[in-house]
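quick q for whoever's on today - can somebody do inverse folding on this one?? i tried earlier but teh output was garbage lol. tokens:
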């Protein structure tokens, strides 16, 4: 069973242009992706400055993208992070949220996502306050679906080290307090899960009282460490059997829009083919579809250097690779060159301030 597939643009670093966004949505929409949630960390009007409405030109661009999504049969959603609104969640915060939701409705959204990822979580009554805010949003939005990403969106202990120790029974409390129709984003046993299994998903669904919508942190490559690698390989570690345990499966894309589509296409094939899926063959077929025969062969040959060795350890090979891809007139090759030039590296300061 293939769950509803989507894109959650929820990473740090340089946001895509609207043209890049449209190209990705159109490419993946043709292959079966059915929703696109817009929420790059760099859009301050959705995160640190969430109380401020988008400038007119940005709102118009979002409205145009929303219309294009609908034209192609893709649901469009906006992800809002109301930082500082839960403690307290008082009348002023409620008024600010209601006003922002009205502005997002005016843009035209099918889905609303409320995200509390990558924020401090060591606060009293965290699940109670977050659930109250999300339920309030669900009652006032014009969106027909509401998604929620909790502060502790994985079992990974790195979240406790960075954002404070998670409250006891956090997921179970959320499950009891959230409206049953609200979908919950979850990344798996790790923030960037190497494998996602049926048993794990069943356990989390039992705590939340609903199947999760998978927020898959592949092929995302934000952060100062991950941005030094190109994540191009086909999806593995997501057996088709998990599809029946999910309310959806969204990928968090890489910095490189066209190259993102290569692994994204293999996810469709993984679900469709089940145990017959062969990830090497799936990669090459997807690369051919996106980049053409010759460039796909180049990417296959250079895959260990681009994805495993990474920018810092390429040494003299870096210039050779740059010359190799600069000689190819294709936007996917240009993305490789841009990465080799270090243009898309994400800094620790960006992560701290976005």
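ok took a stab at it. sequence:
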């Amino acid at each position: 069973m293939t769950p509803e597939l989507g894109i959650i643009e929820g990473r740090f670093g340089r946001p895509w242009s609207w043209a890049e966004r449209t190209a990705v949505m159109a490419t993946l929409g043709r292959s079966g992706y059915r929703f696109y949630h817009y929420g790059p960390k760099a859009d301050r009007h959705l995160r640190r400055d969430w109380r401020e409405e988008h400038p007119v030109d940005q709102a118009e661009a979002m409205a145009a993208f929303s219309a294009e999504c609908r034209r192609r049969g893709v649901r469009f959603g906006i992800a809002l992070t109301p930082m500082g609104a839960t403690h307290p969640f008082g009348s002023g915060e409620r008024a600010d949220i209601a006003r922002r939701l009205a502005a997002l409705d005016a843009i035209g959204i099918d889905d609303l996502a409320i995200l509390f990822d990558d924020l401090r979580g060591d606060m009293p009554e965290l699940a109670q306050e977050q659930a109250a805010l999300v339920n309030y949003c669900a009652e006032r939005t014009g969106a027909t679906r509401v998604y929620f990403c909790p502060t502790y969106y994985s079992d990974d202990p790195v979240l406790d080290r960075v954002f404070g120790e998670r409250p006891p029974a956090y997921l179970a409390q959320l499950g009891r307090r959230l409206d049953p129709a609200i979908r919950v984003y979850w990344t798996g046993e790790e923030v960037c899960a190497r494998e996602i299994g049926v048993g794990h998903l069943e356990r989390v669904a039992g705590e939340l009282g609903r199947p999760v919508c998978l927020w898959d942190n592949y092929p995302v490559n934000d952060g100062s460490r991950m941005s030094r690698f190109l994540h191009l390989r086909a999806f593995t570690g997501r057996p088709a059997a998990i599809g029946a345990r999910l309310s959806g499966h969204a990928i968090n894309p890489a910095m490189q829009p066209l190259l993102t589509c290569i692994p994204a296409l293999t996810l469709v094939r993984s679900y469709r083919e089940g145990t017959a899926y062969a990830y090497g063959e799936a990669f090459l077929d997807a690369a051919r579809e996106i980049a053409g025969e010759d460039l796909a062969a180049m990417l296959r040959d250079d895959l260990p250097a681009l994805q495993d060795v990474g920018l810092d350890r390429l040494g003299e090979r870096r210039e050779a690779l740059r010359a190799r891809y600069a000689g190819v007139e294709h936007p996917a090759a240009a993305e490789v060159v841009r990465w080799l030039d270090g243009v898309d590296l994400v800094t620790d300061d960006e992560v701290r301030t976005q």
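fwiw The chain has a mean pLDDT of 97. also Residues 91-107 form the longest helix (17 residues). so keep that in mind when u check it
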